[in-house]
Amino acid sequence: MAGDRALRVSQSIKKEVAEMIQRELRDDRLKGLISITDVECTHDLRSVKIFISVFKSKTQEANQYDETLKPAKTASKTKSVRESGDPAVDQVVEALNEHAGFIRGEVCRRLGLRFAPEMYFRADTSLERGSKVTDLLGKISRGEI
Q: Which entry of 3, 17, 115, 136 is 20 to 30 Å from 27 by CA?
């Protein structure tokens, strides 16, 4: 019973956060197509992990090389636990973690939750890995490898 509620709340959080990212957050670091792939709630709804995937446009991919040449930042306050290895994706995750307080309050108000859950954003690279595997399988079937 409690698992059903956590599932319903996680799906509602997924919908609300996606809408907020698309319409309400104004941050230069939020570039590309940001999609929420999964939301994991604890059974007591006090903590939420939100997994995101970022698809970059062609111009962002071309500029990625320039970003890697810049000197590394000093230690930031919101360090991602699971870094993707892609500076653009890590930048989006860092921006969302900085906006987590605002998102947390809005989700609590919109869904009428008693407690505002702690929110943590993480990069989900499973879609990119799946795409690479599909490309490799295609090359193998065509005899390129």
A: 115
CB atoms within 10 A of CB 10: 20
pTM: 0.71
| Residue 133 parent element (H or E) | helix 126-142
Q: Two tokens at 130?
A: 């799946």
pLDDT, one tens digit per residue, over 96-122 is 999 999 999 999 999 999 889 999 999
Neighbours of 16 (CB within 10 A): 16
- The DSSP secondary-structure symbol of 24 reads T
Dmax of the chain from CA atoms?
Answer: 58
Give the tokens for residue 92: 């989006």
Alpha-carbon separation of residue 53 from 39, 40, 76, 124, 145 (angstroms): 12, 15, 21, 5, 29
The strands making up 47-55's β-sheet, listed across from edge to edge, are: 33-41, 47-55, 118-123
Specify the residue for token string 């090389």.
Answer: 65
Residue range 2-142, CATH number: 3.30.300.20
Domain ranges of the chain: 2-142
